[in-house]
Amino acid sequence: MPAKTCPRISEVESLNQLFRRLPTWAVYLAGVLPFLWIVWLAVTGGLGADPVKAIELRLGELGLQFLIGGLVITPLRWFGLNLMKFRRAVGLVAFFYIAMHLSAWVVLDMGLRWSEMANDLVKRWYIIIGMAGFAAMIPLAVTSNNASVKRLGAAAWRRLHKLTYVAVLAGAVHYVVLVKAWPVEPLLYLGAAILLLAARAWKARARFLPVSA
To answer: Which family does it belong to (predicted)?
Structure first.
């Protein structure tokens, strides 16, 4: 009799086959759609009484969501679902939204008033945390290409891209402190980031533990 295939394994493999056929550019296309929707709402007056704050908040949320989405890809692989080909695209989309979030604050909110921005940095430490997270993402975006992997070497490139952990934690803390009222959503993002990083640490530690006889 032919061996029976576990239905769950069969379903995961079917998904893997589907994702193998899906081009990477589809992630970029899907990733830009929320940005276009925000632009549409801004043009049509659909962002409420304070559209600038709404733009800032939504862009930042999207950046954090894509950052966390990028972290989810590795644990999914532990369970057989392979989305690794999309991880670079997800990270670059996250960088785009965080860069747009910062640009919205600098241009739309602060109006390029550098002295006021400096005062905000002094008074609101969570802005510094957010800036640090964005700074951590810059070398990641610059080196998210095959040429950089070859130039740096795979091991050094992987070490550099651990800055993702700094970026996602900084972004989550920035969001939690920014909203001040402690609503559930920012805390969920922070909890998800901590849980995903803890899972990676546990997996890395387990790899080096001696195997019992």
So the answer is: Belongs to the MsrQ family.
pLDDT of 120 reads 85
Q: How many CB atoms lie within 10 A of CB 206?
A: 8
pLDDT at 1: 44
Rounded to whole angstroms, the Cα distance separating 173 from 60 reads: 12
The whole domain housing 171 covers: 7-198
Structure tokens that stand for 27 in this block: 């992630």
Dump pLDDT digits (tens) for 65-78.
Answer: 999 999 999 999 88
Report the alpha-carbon distance of residue 128 to residue 117 in Å, rounded: 11
In a domain, 62, yes or no: yes
The pLDDT-based confidence of 87 (bands split at 50, 70, 90) is very high
Indicate the SS3 state at residue 137: helix
Residue 20 CA to residue 199 CA, distance in Å, equals 26
Question: Is residue 204 included in any domain, yes or no?
Answer: no
